[in-house]
Give the backbone structure.
Amino acid sequence: MTSHSHSVPVSPLTRALPYLALLGSILSFCIGTSFAKQLFPQIGAEGTAAYRVGFSALIVLVVFRPWRYPLSRANLLATMRYGAVLGLMNLSFYMALRTIPLGLAIAIEFIGPLTVSLIHARRAMHFVAVGLAAAGLALLLPIHAAHQTLDPVGVGYALGAGVFWGLYIVFGKQTKAMPGGQAVALGMTMAALIVVPIGIHAEGALLLSPSLIVVGLAAAFLSSSIPYSLEIFALKAIPANRFGVLVSIEPAVGALAGGLLLGERLSSQQWLAIVLVVAASVAAVLANERKS
C-alpha cells in the first residue's frame, strides 16, 4: 500500500470552520461598529478610530504575546505593510461613517475585495458576480440627482477605505507563514502607531474621560479584536477570490445592524444596491461549488 493511496477524510465541521469564523467576524464587526458610532458626538471619528485601533492593539498583544515567536525581517516587513493598511482602512471607514449609513459605507468600501476578486477571477460566473456587485455600487455613488444622494466626501472616504481593504486582503495573505496571533498582534500595533496620534491630535485630553474609555474598550473588542483575529484565520484557509465575494454579505448585515442599533433607514434604491452586492456573493459561491 502506498502512503498516498488513502487521504485522511476531512470532517464537514473542519471544512466549515474558516467560513464560520468569517461569519462571526462580520457579525461582531457590524455590531461593534454600530456601538462605536455612538461615540462620534463626543470624540468624533478620529477619536473613535484611535480608541478602536489603540485598545484592539493592547488586547491582542496581551492575548497573543507575539514576542514568544521568532520574527524574520521579511515577516516583520509583511506585518508592517498589513498593519499600515489596516490602520488607514479603519480611519478612512470611520471618517466615512460621519455622513453615510453603516450598510452603505460597507457596500461602497467593498470595491476593495471586489477588485481582488476580479484579479483572481478565472470563471465566467466570477465576472457575473463582479458585474452584480458593480451595479450595486453604481446605485450608491453620488451620480444621481435624487434627494437620497450620498455625501460625496463620505463616499470618497469609503472608496479610500475600499482601496485599503483590498490591500489588507493581499498583505494579509503574505503573513500566512506566521502564527495567526502574531500577525494580528503586530499588525494592530502598527495600525495603532498610525491612528492613535491622529486621534490624540484631533481630540486631545478628552480621550482620557473614564466613561468614554469604557465604551471605547467595548467597541474595540467587538469591532476589531474579535473580527480581525477570526478573519486572519479565515484568510489563510479561504481562496482570495472566494473570500473577496463572501464578505459581500457584510453590507446587508451592516444595514440591519445600523437599522436596529442606530435607527438608520435606507431607501428602496439603497436596499436594491445591497441586494445586488449580496447576489454577487451567492453567484461566486455557486461558481466555486461547481468547480469543486
Summary: The radius of gyration is 19 Å. Residues 17-291 form one domain.
